[in-house]
Specification:
With 200 residues, the protein is α/β, with parallel strands linked by helices. Helices cover 45% and strands 14% of the residues. Strand 4, helix 6 and strand 5 form a beta-alpha-beta unit.
Length: 200
Amino acid sequence: KTTSLRCICGSMRPSSGRIRINGFDLSENPVEAKRGLAFVPEIPYPLPYLTVWEHLTFIARAYSAKDWEPRAGGLLDAFNMTDKRDEYCIRLSKGMKQKVMLMSAFVHEPSVLIMDEPLYGIDPQGSYELKKLIRQSLSSRASVLISSHTLSLIEEVCARVAIMSKGRIIAVGTYDELRNQAAARKDATFEEVFVKITEG
């Protein structure tokens, strides 16, 4: 799953197939393809010798974002990071570094958002705010692709799910479609459905 996401965001070259983002072919027109894209990797690695605010400034300017400063301030408040605004990223905890990556993903209002294990090291308040931001992005017609072992996150914010096992997609569909495929009862949790499908 991580390899697939890295190929989509352009940090790895796929061995076959083509990737198009917002209609632009990633191999032929990478700048335009990535213009509306945000990627949150599995392991957070913000630029270590920039402060939190400098990091957000760099990302916003790299994407030529407009009116980004109020949005960045709101993200700092939402993730309880306002007091860390002038802290160098290298001095932050793992959870705080992940918050920097999440804020960087949302600061330029991407139309395509890809997240690999976005709840890594995140506290309950941060988890709540992340889910709220994902829902806001979806309501603004952004495309959101999340890869996660945290099934509760997937169940809460995703309308359609692909289940992978041993590097291959073995099931795709809505929750009702996956329940039917698993021959699970109608009130079965997503965790139960997941186990039935992967064991079956």
